[in-house]
Amino acid sequence: MSLSETMGKLENLLTNLVKDLSKVTKGNRSAAQRVRVGTIRMEKVARQFRKESVDAEKTGKLRKPKKKAKKRKR
What we know:
There is one protein chain. By secondary structure, this protein is an all-alpha fold. It has one domain (3-59). The protein is 72% helix and 0% strand. It has helices at residues 3-24, 29-59.
C-alpha cells in the first residue's frame, strides 16, 4: 500500500469516528460500538502510516520539491 492510500484510509476512518462520536454523546449504543471497532481499525492503519512515513522520509519522498530559481535577464 502506498503512503497516499494509507493517508486516505486514515482520513476516512477519522471522519467516520468523529461522526459516530457525536452520536455517542446523545446515547446511541450502536454508534458507541462502531467507535470501539473503528479505533481498533484506526490503530492498525496508524501503525502502517507510521511505517510508510518513516520509509518515505528516509528515501526523500516526503520532502517538498525545491523551487527553481528564475533566471534574470540582463
